[in-house]
Every structure is written in C-alpha cells, then in structure tokens.
Amino acid sequence: MFLLSSSWGQEGFTFNEVLISIALIAIGILGFSLNTVGVIQGNHVSSNITIATNLAQDKMEELKAHHIRFVDMDNCPDAGDRSLTATGAPGGIYDRCWTIKNSSVPGAEGLKEVSVTVRWRDYLDRAVTLSTLVFTQ
C-alpha cells in the first residue's frame, strides 16, 4: 500500500513570502542608511562650527594681546585672513575677518566692540561671529 501525504505543499516558504520579506528588510536598511547619512552630515557641520569658533577665538585673543590702542577698522568681508585650515595655516576652507569700532551700547564711553567673523562653505554658506567689548582708557 502506498500513501501520499496531503501536507506536501505546506512545508517551507512560498516565493511571494520570500520576496515580501526581502522587500521589508531592504526598506528597513534603507531607512537606517538615510539616518546614518544625516548623522554623518551633522557631525561634519558640528566639527566645522567648532573649528570656526576656535579660529575666531584665536584671532580675538591675538587682537586683545597685540593692540594697546584699538583703532577703528573694518576688514569684513573683503580682507582679513583667507583660506585657513583648522590650525590657522593657509590652504583651508575658512575665511576670517574682524572689525573694531566704538561700542553702540548707550553710556559705554571708552569701550570698543571687537567682532571676529569666520566664514566657510561646506554644502551651505556658513559663518560664526564672536564679539566682545574692550575697555580702552
């Protein structure tokens, strides 16, 4: 006597089930990869902002250390330091300029406003500006 199993078609997965599973996994991986690209871009922008802030702070300290008398000047945006790297050496993406002017704060005679701006372009034009007041009398 020879018996045939009626459950022969119930073993394993159908081709459609496998295709749907692969499609769902691919959509999940795509979502994670897009998120990863956003995180990488965010880290790059954050790094550039930190470098620009450090370059601006370095120039601010240099101006405060070397200028006994603060003479009004404005070399933004056409003059200043061009094409700086993160260390301040030539050949980078950062441009740095500064202004020195009388303070616009009412009643603040004898104060000079010193502003340093660092500009760069990654995938957008960006800038960081630091300002301080210096007593000159």
Relative strand content? 25-35%
- Reading the helices and strands in chain order gives HEEEEE
Question: What is the number of strand segments?
Answer: 5
Write down the domain tally. Answer: 1
Low-confidence stretches: 1-6
Q: What proportion of the residues is helical, as a percent range?
A: 25-40%
Q: Please state the structural category.
A: alpha+beta
What's the alpha carbon Rg, rounded to whole Å? 30 Å
Mean pLDDT: 86
Q: What's the overall geometry?
A: rod-shaped
Please summarize the sheet with the most strands: 5 strands, antiparallel
Q: Termini separation (Å)?
A: 115 Å
> Tally the helices: what do you get?
1
Characterize the structure shown.
With 137 residues, the chain is of the alpha+beta class. Helices cover 38% and strands 27% of the residues. Strands 1, 2, 3, 4 and 5 form a five-stranded antiparallel beta sheet that branches. A hairpin with an 8-residue loop joins strand 3 and strand 4.
